[in-house]
Design a protein that fits this description.
This protein is mostly helical and 72 residues long. Helices cover 71% and strands 0% of the residues. Helix 2 runs antiparallel to helix 3.
């Protein structure tokens, strides 16, 4: 979904969806953070995978924000 963001409106819709999904959980825990914690705590091999996954997600989000700058 992050690759399809090209405007501030798209970014706001993505944000709203992330918030909506987060509110569906009764425990208030971020699903991404929960998964990262489970993988990282499992064993040493999980930590690099979590770091790589979060870096990839951060790169996608940064790209989306960059594309939306100056767009309506």
């Amino acid at each position: 979904m992050l690759n399809s963001l090209h405007s501030v409106r798209d970014l706001a819709r993505w944000r709203d969806e992330v918030v909506r999904l987060g509110r569906r959980r009764d425990d208030g825990i971020c699903p991404l953070g929960d998964l990262a914690e489970l993988l990282a705590d499992g064993d040493g091999a999980g930590r690099p995978a979590v770091r790589a996954g979060l870096a990839a997600w951060e790169s996608l989000l940064a790209g989306a924000i960059t594309r939306t700058r100056g767009a309506p």
